[in-house]
Amino acid sequence: MSTAGGRPVWYAGSMTASLSPAQQTLNDLWEKHLRHEFVTKDTAATLATMVDDARVNHVPVLTGGSGKAALHAFYAGHFIPHMPPDFEIVPIARTIGDTRLVDELVARFTHTVPMDWVLPGVAPTGRPVIMPIVVSVEFRDGRLCSERIYWDQASVLVQVGLLDPAHLPVLGAEVGTQILEARYPANALIERATGR
Prior knowledge:
This protein is an alpha+beta fold. It has one domain: Nuclear Transport Factor 2, Chain: A (Roll). Helix content is about 30%, strand content about 30%. The radius of gyration is 17 Å and the shape is globular. The protein starts with a strand and ends with a helix.
């Protein structure tokens, strides 16, 4: 999803050429799930796309939950209502198999609201964040059964001012910007470490 004039613009179809009917079904269900998370912001509709024992794991911070009750509490209390108004997802790549879909995305937002799903306990900093994300989604019985979401937490902490990269092998916004624009050269940290 990206935004145009403040409205979400979905990329359904633009990354899904030559899908089998089964793959198209997975793609469409994933798109429906995302639409309910980010556009309609409807917890019940989001959960309706998932099996009863579904599991969501934001791996860097272990937020999410297992089972409908835990996921309802998570989605309604910590995820869906806690998206900054400028939150945007830029698609990079999608791979679809028989029972699994993997999305590579870049999220962009300004940290203007509490976001316990990514920065638990951190008050809004007002800082911009560019966050590459990889989502591995598994399906069972026509619904989502597992989501594992990965991102570089160190780069997020650098961007919101909680981690000083000066003497650590970490970067901030460059991590996401390089994926979107390829303008940052490789090996900057190696060059910094070796003094070249």
